[in-house]
Every structure is written in structure tokens, then in C-alpha cells.
Design goal:
Shape: globular
Oligomer: single chain
Largest sheet: 7 strands, mixed
Distance between the termini: 22 Å
Strand content: 15-25%
Number of helices: 8
Helix content: 25-40%
């Protein structure tokens, strides 16, 4: 899949409590969660985001408590994918499970600044900084992960697979 949007860059160790503050964990409504995404770190985050924009971060993005609310809030806020130097493993998996592409590419993070136009092609394994012309290679997702993301998450992927007669998960 191809994603294109403006980069919004943040630092290292952005934890799930910052991504979606605990006071908003009383709901699983994506739209409500999206309204409060990153509000403790950057109160203007939601107003800056346009649907399709790309979040860029340093190391250890999504550390902290394990909650699906965090990637769900990011996706609902309008972010199409996240590029980071590294992710907390549980955040990485939760993001894939809800259909939010997350890519680890330290070189791209170093070569992208806030406000630049970015294009990500998960099939080719490329991150292109359209503002500078720099191209960064990233390992493409395996087919099954690509399938999960294309279908909007693990639940939709499994439902579709179960509909296919004789299909194996």
C-alpha cells in the first residue's frame, strides 16, 4: 500500500500514556480517542493533522503500558502510518492488529523533518522524502501482515479468511 502525507516528527520514548492519556481510557470509540491523541505532549497535535499524514519518531515509540487505545487513537486522529527508529514490541503488534502500518527505519527518521511531504510504499519497502528527493529502503511487510493492514486489522483479516472455504489461518 502507498501512503502520502506531511511528516510530524517527535522524539524518543513517546509512551502510551502520552499518546492517549489514561483519563480517556473509558471508551474504545476511535473517534473519541482520536480527539485526545497526543494532547499531553502536543496540545495542537489533532488540529495540525490532516487525514493521511505520517508520524515520525525516534527510538522506543509506544513504550509503557500495553493498550490498543494508543495506536487506535493515532489512526483515528488521521495518521496513515508511523516511521520510527524503533518501537516497543507490544505497541508494534497492537498497531498491526488494528491495521496501522509501522515501519522501523532509523535512516529515514534522521532524513525527515516536520512539515516535509513523505510517501511510503509498504509493498516496495520504500520511504520517499518528496521534499528532498531522498529515498530510504525498509524491509517490506510479509504478505500476511500486508493482508492484515489492507483489511484494516486482524479481526477483519480473520473474518475474511474464515469466509474462504477451506482456508487456513
Amino acid at each position: 500500500m502507498v501512503y502520502e502525507g506531511i511528516a510530524h516528527k517527535y522524539g524518543r520514548d513517546i509512551n502510551t500514556d502520552v499518546i492517549i492519556p489514561a483519563r480517556h481510557l473509558t471508551t474504545f470509540d476511535p473517534q473519541e480517542l482520536g480527539k485526545h491523541c497526543m494532547e499531553n505532549l502536543d496540545p495542537s497535535f489533532v488540529s495540525k493533522i490532516k487525514k493521511g499524514d505520517i508520524l515520525v519518531a525516534e527510538e522506543n515509540f509506544g513504550c509503557g503500558s500495553s493498550r490498543e487505545h494508543a495506536p487506535l487513537a493515532i489512526k483515528a486522529a488521521g495518521i496513515s502510518c508511523i516511521i520510527a527508529k524503533s518501537f516497543a514490541r507490544i505497541f508494534f503488534r497492537n498497531a498491526i492488529n488494528i491495521g496501522l502500518p509501522v515501519l522501523e527505519c532509523p535512516e529515514a527518521v534522521d532524513g525527515i523533518n516536520t512539515g516535509e511531504q513523505i510517501k511510503v510504499d509498504t509493498m516496495r519497502g520504500q520511504i520517499i522524502n518528496l521534499s528532498t528527493g531522498k529515498i530510504f529502503e525498509v524491509k517490506p511487510f510479509p504478505d500476511f501482515i500486508q493482508g492484515i493492514i489492507e483489511r484494516g486489522g486482524l479481526i477483519n483479516y480473520v473474518k475474511e479468511r474464515l469466509k474462504v472455504k477451506g482456508s487456513r489461518l
